[in-house]
Every structure is written in C-alpha cells, then in structure tokens.
Amino acid sequence: MLALLSAGVALVLTLVIGNVWPATASQCAPQTVRAQKIDAAAVGALAALTGTGHGRGYADLKFMDATGKPQTIADFSGKKLLVNFWASWCVPCREEMPALNALAQSDNSDAFQVLPVNLDIGEGGLDKAKAFLTDNRLDHLPLYADSTFSAFDRLKREGVAIGLPVTLLLDEKGCELGVLQGPAEWNSPDGHAVIDTLKGS
Q1: 187 band by pLDDT with thresholds 50, 70 and 90
Q2: Are 104 and 130 in contact (CB under 8 A)?
C-alpha cells in the first residue's frame, strides 16, 4: 500500500515539475505586452476600456446560436473577438448596439469578429432579442444568447463584470486582453484604433 502511495505521489510530482499538468480551458498565459498596447490605444471614447491580459481564458464559455445549437468561444478559435454581453431591456446596451453593428459591418473578417451574446432570460427572451435586432435593422449582429445567465454569472464571480453591457476583447485562443464595463461608441476613430490594435497584436 505504501509503495502504491509513493508511486502515486511520484507521478503527481513528475506531472507538475515536468510542466505537463493539463491546463483547464479557463487558463491562459499572461500577456502583459499585448494588453499594454490595447490599454495605450484606449483613449477618448474608449477611455473606460482597460487592457488586462492577466491569464483569464474563456474558450469554454457556453452560449447558443439562434437555432439553439450549443456554442463556446472555442468555436471561434483563430479569430480575435469583441464579445459584448447585452440585453434588450438594458438601455445602455440598446444605445450601444448600432455602433457595434457598424463595427461588425466594417471590420468582421476571417481574423476578427464582433460576437454579441444576449442575456434576455425567461420565456420569450430569445424572441425579444430577435425582435430587437430585426426592428433596429442590426443586420450585421448575429444572435447568440445565454438564457441561463451562467456566462455573465461567471464574469461576475471572476470580478470582470458588474452590470450590463460588458465587453471582452479576446485573442485568437479566447484569452482575455481587455475589458470594458459599460457602453462605448465603437464606431468612432477611438473605437477603430482599439480594434486595429487588437487585430495587430
């Protein structure tokens, strides 16, 4: 028994010391330099945005598409992302959406995407979100949603979010590079400067 226990301890030590302990999807290497570049670009209309890069990762963050198909941030691997959490009942969110739509129209590509995640909960929540996007002709914003609110609850637990809207800037692996709490005029020279910095980082 003692021999088996010793062997087990040795295996754990080998995995840890050998740096092959399997990382979880929510872990990323710190990215100080990339985050500092984003922080430096965040001026004027984007002054409230903070470059982070502390090692938080969201590859495993769950939501669904408009058909109810499960999705995660990992499904967008290879793209840098602006992930915006919004709800149709949130007035600042509603005011911000046209600028995000314009940004998506001008900048979405194989390398970058605006990814809005709706948080309308309860019966009819998804229909309310669809109606808002349709009525306001936000044709360049696809509908993704988390009616369970679990994604936003995770952001609150990790100290990233207080209220809505909240926006994450993520690298091509789903690692956090910047956070903005509150709305912003993304379709502005300041907004485009931040996105250009994200895409070039």
Answers
A1: very high
A2: no
Q: Rounded distance, CA 124 to CA 143, Å?
A: 14
The whole-angstrom separation of Cα 182 and Cα 167 is: 8
What is the spatial distance between Cα 116 and Cα 104, in angstroms, rounded to a whole number? 10
Closest CA to 103 of 30, 7, 198: 198
Phi, psi torsion values for 28, nearest 5 degrees? -135, 155
The answer, yes or no, to whether residue 74 has pLDDT greater than 70, is: yes
Tell whether 148 is covered by a domain: yes
| pTM of the predicted protein model | 0.86
In a domain, 4, yes or no: no
* pLDDT category of residue 21 using cuts at 50, 70 and 90: very low
- Inter-residue contact 32 to 53 (CB < 8 Å): yes
6 within a domain of the structure (yes/no): no
Give the CA angle between residues 95, 128, 143 to the nearest 5°: 75
Alpha-carbon gap, residue 72 to 53, rounded angstroms: 20
Residue at 110 is within a domain:
yes
> Which CATH number characterizes residue 141's domain?
3.40.30.10
How many domains does the chain divide into?
1
Q: What angle do CA 27, 97, 125 make, to 5 degrees?
A: 80
Which domain range does residue 193 map to?
Answer: 24-200
